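Hello Y.,

Per our agreement to keep a running log of every chain we model this quarter, I'm adding this entry. I've kept the format consistent with earlier entries: sequence first, then predicted structure.
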Amino acid sequence: MASNTERRRYPRVSLTHVTVEVYDSEGQPAQPEFCFIINVSENGMLFKSDSPNEDYTSNRRVRLTFTLPDNNVVIRTDALIIHIQETDLSRYLGVQFKGLGDAERNFLKEFVKKSLNAG
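Predicted structure for the entry above:
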C-alpha cells in the first residue's frame, strides 16, 4: 500500500505556531475558531480543532483565513472538509481549497517549494 506522501499530488509541509481562522461558508459565526495548522499544500491543509462546539462534518464547506510564515499576504478561501480524525481532546480536519485565486495558489506553491528545498 502506498504511503500518504506517495499518493499526494501536492506535497505538504509542516507548520508550527501558525493559525487559521475558520468560519462557516457564509462567514458565520461572528467569532471564528482559531485552529493550529498542522500542514499545508497548494491544494489544501490539515488543521487541529479543539472546540467541542463546532459541528464539523465531511463535505461541509468552511471559509478559511490565514497568513503564511515570512509573508504578509492574507489568504482567504473556501474549503471542503474531506476527512476528520477525532481524538479524545481534538479533531484533525483535512480540507481541500475551493475557489482559491491564482495569486494565492502561487504563493502557496512557492512557499511549499521553498520549504521543501530548505529541509
